[in-house]
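Journal club side-thread
Mid-discussion, someone asked how the predicted structure for our own chain would compare to the paper's figures. Pasting it here so we can look after the session.
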Amino acid sequence: MSSLIPSSRLFNLISSLRPRFESSIKQRSPIINSVSTRPMAANLANGRPEVDYSLYLVTDSDLVPIGRTLEEQVAAALAGGTTIVQLREKTADTSTFVALAKRLLKLTRAAGVPLLINDRVDVALAADADGVHVGQSDLDAASVRRLIGPNKLVGLSIGTPAEAQAVCALPEGTVDYVGIGTVYDTATKRTAKALLGLQGVRTVMGVLASRPEIKAVSIGSMNLKTARNTVYKTQFRDDQGQIVSIHGVAVVSALIAASDPAAAARELLAAVRTTPAWALPATRTLSIANDVFAPEAVVGLVRRSTPLVHCIINRVAANFAANIAIAAGASPVMSENEGEFVDLARAASSPAGGALLINLGFPTEDFINSTYLPAVLAYNQQQRPIVLDPIAAGATALRKRAVATLLNHGHFAVIKGNEGEIFAVAGEPSAMRGVDSTSALPLTERARVALKLAQREKTIVCMTGAVDVVSDGTRVVIGRNGHPYLADITASGCVLGTLVAAFVGVLSPEKQIPERVIDNVLAALCLYNIAAERAAALPSVSGPGTFVPALLDQIYALSKQSLDGNDSWFSDAKYELFRMP
């Protein structure tokens, strides 16, 4: 039987307990950063220590593996670098809860890591824990602060912009950090609230940007497949140019249920603390005229490396796409089998390289959950690039939801589509008839949307059309190569996506910086469009039917020329920087 304290007695009880612990609170040793072993600086505004929220462990006794204890799992997670711990015991009676908290405190203080108690201020004071975390339905944060005193940590769960606004309205020093969630569906804590996804986290962080002293962690199915994207894809710059970012991830089953919590903690901490190349700012100015931009060299590299290109693509385009990949020197794999995704992502991590193409040919909810998302998470975990081809993204509500789901879960190195598709992904009004874009906006407007989407998604946007528009979020490049026959054959855009995947697939994780990725995307466009021009000019080509095999032959021929060091074909390239007005 639980001996929970009635809420009517809580204030009186805690008020009598708190003075008893004031002296021990003030004499407590400073919290030590378990990674750097450097004493953490005091926050001069409130007297509380600065805390590293990078890897926040939330306990759940029900998830502890058979034969292990909660203390053993926590100790191992601390050894692996866990930076803060919250003890959550929803069903334990008060005496058991306090006793467990005291045992865990010995572990956390030896590691120089704070221990917080979930919900129960009385337990936190009785055990002399380092703070309390409460939810929206628990005791309000201001009352918690008043009861627990000025030198303890107070955390609060939030999940909506309105709840973030309420936090911002609290007096300074009331709340030290917030837990933002639920990001993704999780079995450890069911909620009736809508899942946030990455876009939801970004929106909530936008509200919190006015209170930078309040830190934030994300919670809800945080693991090796989701942690990196949640930290880095939700970053943005505020009006003053300062980076706004969450400060860590709150993890439950990925550590508590792990067979080796220390190893799991080390991997998670590395994922959180190591900035992926795609999130780094641009370090050079792209110049079509200089020798840094060398797409012909990339063409030869693809043929020499033979990167794996895993295509999840509509059936109409599959054969054509595979042939295009082979003609350029890549190795295509057409697989929709979830059981292969992890192995294929690992194969793409070999020295030959590789990438994934997600072609939105099957935007049903079942296919998204059983195929697209597992593939995206597998390749993101291995830090292999993914190309998203949002076929007919603006044509139906189903496809719009599918794109939103994918963007809310993963990072894509490239988003490639026609004008209507890219505008739909960017949330701009678009005109689509099936898979075809029926709008033709001014080049300046197309460039604006490409730049905006590239910045938001930390990706390269490749908007195809009579004039191609490509942006890495800093620059915009336009290309004027190609031939009208490309609009008269089935799946010309789909197979271009396959070619782009092959070209970005040769980049190792540390080279997937925006300016390198945009080079490789432009190289794929050059090869494809110049090959189309040359194919269409052949005497044997009289229309779309004879154009397709000629296109394959020309891609093969130009690719071979580049491998042999003959780059003369690139003199036909018509690409230039576009200056935004």
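Post-session note: The first helix runs from residue 7 to 27.
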